[in-house]
Design a protein that fits this description.
The chain is α/β, with parallel strands linked by helices. The chain is about 45% helix and about 5% strand.
Length: about 300
């Protein structure tokens, strides 16, 4: 049997979503309704102009959101589950001073992310996951996730600095955290670089597969972030209080799944229902975690990406 591993706190609450330092903001994008039509138009335009990159500031014409009495729903919500047939129904708690344009964008983002991850993971989230759009806090993380709800800090002083695409990406990143815990049935993983790296990678794949960002751009942004702020070796990154796992973990997740995309990541979290973290890793990715971490460090060295 594999040796036991120390477990980390997996509440995933108060996790930073994006690191704005070093000029890197890594996230995913997608949309429903008007944003889907935008994505289709952008994909068509990109097909006619192969070298172009979709603009991230294109306005989207969508109806204004309806504000309902959703705050009357129980809080915190019940534990989330998964279903192959029942579409996800989010419950929004929206602070009164959240601008309507931001609320609309976040609602669209939640629908898009849910559909994208349902396609890749094969299931919807159930039990009405809660989403809080918070205007009160001006510092700290841009997003937080627990196993059953997420908070987007729209009032954060850094929020206006984000592009439209990166704002949507915060939502997609956090919703993938909900999928991680729901797929695992509440089981925990000790691999922090994979928790955050998988969420970053899955978000970026949503961008890429919507035709809004080239994969080469995603990888280049990740490399620039790690070069600007050198990270420790992957195997010890989770034990370094100064490490930032987002860009490093995204690069590692890309190397880990190869051409498989998001489905192997979903398979890993599902496997945690019945297997130890080390067993689940090998079952999902076809190699042991120590072997992969050594392979990743060799890849990083070959490309001159520094480690500290």
């Amino acid at each position: 049997m594999p040796e036991a591993e120390p477990m980390l706190d997996e509440s995933m609450s108060r996790r930073r979503v994006l690191a704005l330092g070093g000029g890197a903001v890594l996230a995913a994008v997608g949309a429903s309704g008007g944003m889907i039509e935008w994505a289709r138009r952008e994909s068509a335009r990109r097909a006619e102009a192969p070298g172009s990159v979709a603009a991230t500031s294109t306005p989207v014409a969508t109806p204004a959101p309806m504000r309902t009495a959703e705050d009357d729903e129980p809080w915190p919500p019940p534990p989330l589950g998964v279903s192959t047939t029942t579409p996800t129904a989010f419950v929004f708690r929206v602070d009164p001073t959240v601008p309507e344009a931001e609320e609309r964008l976040m609602r669209e983002s939640a629908t898009m992310a849910s559909e994208y991850f349902r396609e890749r993971a094969g299931v919807y989230l159930t039990n009405r996951p809660r989403i809080h759009l918070d205007m009160a806090r001006t510092q700290g993380p841009l997003g937080e996730a627990s196993e059953r709800d997420i908070t987007l800090l729209i009032g954060n002083r850094s929020w206006p600095r984000l592009s439209r695409v990166d704002k949507v990406a915060v939502m997609a990143h956090e919703i993938f955290h909900l999928y991680q815990r729901a797929l695992a049935g509440g089981a925990s993983s000790p691999v922090l670089w994979l928790i955050e790296g998988a969420a970053e990678y899955a978000s970026q794949m949503a961008v890429i597969e919507a035709g809004m960002r080239a994969k080469a751009d995603f990888l280049a942004r990740s490399v620039r972030a790690v070069v600007a702020s050198p990270q420790p070796p992957l195997a010890v990154a989770g034990r370094d209080p100064n490490a930032t796992e987002y860009a490093l973990g995204a690069l590692a997740a890309d190397q880990l799944v190869g051409t498989g995309g998001v489905p192997p990541l979903a398979a890993y979290y599902r496997s945690l229902n019945e297997n130890s973290p080390l067993e689940a890793f090998e079952a999902a990715f076809g190699e042991t975690r120590p072997a992969f971490e050594a392979r990743f460090e060799a890849w990083r060295t070959q490309r001159g990406i520094p480690a500290r």
